[in-house]
Design brief:
It comes from Tunturiibacter gelidiferens. This is Iron-regulated membrane protein. This protein has 393 residues and is an alpha+beta fold. The chain has helices at residues 3-32, 35-42, 59-69, 112-127, 136-160, 167-174, 182-196, 198-212, 214-223, 251-258, 317-329, 335-380, 386-392; strands spanning 76-80, 87-90, 96-99, 106-108, 129-130, 133-134, 266-270, 278-284, 294-300, 306-311. It has 3 domains: 14-43 and 111-204 and 338-363, no CATH class; 47-109, Nuclear Transport Factor 2, Chain: A, CATH 3.10.450; 246-315, Nuclear Transport Factor 2, Chain: A (Roll), CATH 3.10.450.
């Protein structure tokens, strides 16, 4: 058996083992690709048509009104510099109340069900979690399959590479052919999808591996010439949430946070606990898809003085590379074009799984037919007994 033949069988075997998981990740990933745009379109009717020209209410009034509208503890507040966009008060991961940022009037839940759907898909894709319950064993299997997919991409390129580098050999492996049917068509599709999407899929799989494994994360930091940092995998229990009668203590910090970046487009505040003296903010100069446009600000809750300011350039090289990996994984880093490529990569991954399984089943069926045929030939070639010869005569 040649080395190329051996690589093919390893490629096929690994593909059969991880195929279903990769298909699952491809489907959930494709759903999440344009999540912000889909939610924004669904909540288009919630836009503030005529913003109030007079003085606006304090930000704490937005939190109070939202808390009166929806029982529970608010966890974050998002404000936008665009007066037409309503503020967002979150109650957990998938529940949001939209509020007019100027007059404080509650608009409603917006596309609450749609947000909840995307939140569930995201939890499935990242953690193999449903209804807040993480399945760590399944997550470990998912992470291993992502890592194995890197091998599938690289070995697939080696197998794909023609033995003779000529156009007549390259063309069937690079372009779709309409005149093919059955196994030949699936083989053509498998080659074409794998060839054109190899680079995006490799980037997605490698960045996914970095986010999945501490050792891969450490390698990234070392490659950047930085010291690896420990990652907190367990979520800490939140302390007692800030009660509604103390929301007013946040107004000064919110106003001071807005002055930290004159170009801010969105400001997100995570509500502190009752005993936390500081308030954490995230200011973004874009649409949230580029880490270079983000700034982390921590202010004191009492007098609003600056405790810590971290822009993207203030991060260590390893941390910057890690942020790049996160936003390259989803395609957000490159705007709409990056999201389109990420969507096409997810579709291609699903097609690679489908065509790979189909080709494997066809190969298995062909092998069984050959085995049965050889068995029949061997049976017919056996010498007949005298009784069988007499019966034949």
């Amino acid at each position: 058996m040649t080395l190329r033949r051996l690589l093919f069988w390893v490629h096929l075997s690994v593909g059969v083992i991880i195929g279903l998981v990769i298909g699952f990740l491809a489907v959930t990933g494709s759903i999440l690709t344009f999540q912000p745009q889909i939610v924004a379109f669904a909540e288009k009717s919630a836009q503030v048509a005529s913003p109030t020209q007079g003085p606006c209410v304090a930000p704490s009034d937005l939190l109070k009104n939202a808390s009166n509208y929806r029982p529970g503890s608010a966890t974050s507040l998002v404000l936008f510099s665009d007066p037409h966009r309503p503020g967002e008060v979150s109650f957990g991961a998938d529940s949001v109340v939209l509020v007019n940022s100027c007059d404080g009037q509650v608009i409603g839940n917006g596309a609450g069900k749609l947000r909840g759907f995307f939140s569930s898909v995201r939890d499935l894709h990242r953690w193999v979690a449903l209804n807040g319950v993480r399945h760590e064993r399944l997550r470990s299997i998912k992470d291993f399959c992502v890592f194995a997919f890197v091998f599938m991409i690289l070995s697939g390129l080696v197998i794909w590479f023609p033995r003779k580098l000529a156009w007549q050999h390259l063309r069937p492996a690079v372009f779709f052919r309409r005149d093919l049917r059955g196994r030949a068509r699936e083989w053509n599709w498998h080659n074409v999808f794998g060839f054109w999407m190899a680079t995006p899929l490799a980037v997605i799989a490698l960045s996914g591996t970095i986010m999945a494994y501490p050792w891969a994360n450490a390698l990234l930091y070392r490659a950047a010439g930085d010291r690896p940092t420990e990652r907190a995998e367990t979520e800490q229990r939140r302390a007692k949430p800030l009660p509604a009668d103390k929301f007013a203590s946040l107004d000064l910090a919110i106003r001071d946070a807005m002055t930290q970046d004159a170009k801010w487009q969105s400001l997100e505040m995570r509500l502190p606990s009752d005993k936390d003296p500081n308030v954490a903010f995230r200011l973004d100069e874009g649409d949230g898809s580029d880490p270079r446009q983000r700034m982390q600000v921590v202010l004191a809750r009492t007098d609003g003085h600056v405790v810590r300011v971290e822009s993207f350039s203030n991060n260590s090289p390893g941390r910057r590379w890690r942020l790049y990996a996160r936003f390259v994984h989803t395609g957000e880093m490159f705007g709409t074009a990056g999201r389109i490529v990420a969507l096409l990569a997810c579709i291609s991954a699903f097609m690679l799984v489908w065509t790979g399984f189909s080709l494997s089943l066809r190969r298995l069926a062909s092998w069984r037919r050959r085995k049965a045929s050889h068995g029949n030939v061997a049976g017919q070639s056996k010498p007949k007994s005298p009784v069988q010869e007499a019966a034949r005569v």
